Amino acid sequence: MAGVLLLGSRRYSSWSLRGWLAVRLAGLDVTEEVIPLKGGGKTTEIHARSPNRMVPYLTHDGADVWESLAICEYCAEIAPSLWPEDRIVRAHARSISAQMHAGFRPIRQNCSMDVERVPAPPPEISEELAADVALLSRTLKSALLRSGQPTPFLFGERMTVADCMYAPIAIRIHTFELDVDPVVKTWVRTMLDHPLMREWYELAAAEPAEWRLVY
């Protein structure tokens, strides 16, 4: 193996999912290590091993890479098809990927990822959350309809970094039945049916019962 990908519990760790998808799509030869998450940011095992005290954390062929978007960028250096080929389309894809990395906080705070909690109790739809969901829907729809016709993935026929970054959002839309455009709902179904996403769900289900968090 050329490296290690450190992850948090697959059931809950949305940032781990983003990095894991990019690593798998790029075909990196790494060992995956999963550390069970503890509530309230108290997972000291991760603090001791990761430079930013969070997951995912990738070591590969002499490189140390942390932060999901940085891992995605690193993977795209190895597998350039992880970004759209066209410069202008690639700029769009990079922009919405960075937007996901920095934004959509109301959705992330009110609709936590749990791949086994379906259906989840609906969140209280505050004005702030409704505005965030509307922004999300517009953002994803603009990518899916960029060519004039809906594409299976955000920028074409295959997953790119943008899809990796929004994969946990697809899970949240499904789990909480968020009110998004029908074009976006179709993308959600496509994402959840992707073999890598199905594999993530299967691996999450196989994790020890004692890793489950109490709500």
Automatic annotation (TrEMBL):
Residues 3-83 form the GST N-terminal domain. It comes from the Bacteria. This is Glutathione S-transferase family protein. It comes from Gluconobacter potus.
